[in-house]
Amino acid sequence: ATKGSPTCLAKILGIYQVTSKHLKGGKESKMDVLVMENLLFRRNLTRLYDLKGSSRSRYNPDSSGSNKVLLDQNLIEAMPTSPIFVGNKAKRLLERAVWNDTSFLASIDVMDYSLLVGIDEEKHELVLGIIDFMRQYTWDKHLETWVKASGFLWW
């Protein structure tokens, strides 16, 4: 992407490797930690969606209560009674940002990510960010996708 291009990619603030040593036995374990910006900080969101562009197994039946993350089918279900209105200029900017971001992610073989959409009805704002984009599309991910799509489960 060129400088000044719109983006929805959530900003990565740091990547750390944390090493811990167990007191008994002295076995070491390492964990990689990714710190990203908090898109929801100081927001009063009435609805929050984690969208992947698929309807298969993308419905949260428990949509009541605060801090519930809704999915693609929940958004489709809500649109007739609670549509999200976006002005033409904002829509064009959003389309450009998503195009830039998804083209970039595809170019580096990242195929699994979500568009986080929060609705702040108080401020009349949408909070948007592409999240969970740090994993490349590897053979194990390809197998997982195939298993989910085909409906096969192995035990």
From TrEMBL:
Taking the record's annotation, the residue ranges forming a coiled coil are: none
Q: Which InterPro entries does the annotation name?
A: PInositol-4-P-4/5-kinase_C_sf, PInositol-4-P-4/5-kinase_core
Q: Could you tell me one molecular function GO term of this UniProt entry?
A: 1-phosphatidylinositol-3-phosphate 5-kinase activity
Q: Specify the PIPK domain's residue ranges.
A: 1-155
CC terms in the record's Gene Ontology section = endosome membrane
Its GO biological process terms? phosphatidylinositol phosphate biosynthetic process
Superkingdom, according to UniProt? Eukaryota
Alphabetical keyword list:
ATP-binding, Kinase, Nucleotide-binding, Transferase
Pfam families membership: PIP5K
Q: Which Gene3D superfamilies match?
A: 2-Layer Sandwich
The name this protein carries in UniProt is PIPK domain-containing protein
